[in-house]
Write the structure tokens for this entry.
Amino acid sequence: SPFAFSTVDNFAVFKNDALGWLAFQYDLMQKSKGNTVTKLGPKSTLRELIFTWAPPSDQNDSEAYLQQVVRNSGLPETITLENIFR
């Protein structure tokens, strides 16, 4: 992230919450455009985003995370990033 102060264990560290929030928004927009190494792009789904963002291989409960996002946002897990961010 261009907003990162440093990294720890391959995770970006930010000087404050405001920069972290800005980086979060920037990262989502870049992913929705296909401008990251994640292979996500406009046609990627919310499910694909969550499972890339918080993969099970990092000890995340990706399915529970996805279901919470679906419940809280009202968006279906099959919505594409281009439809979320247009």
About this structure: The chain is about 50% helix and 5% strand. The CA atoms of residues 40 and 74 lie 22 Å apart.
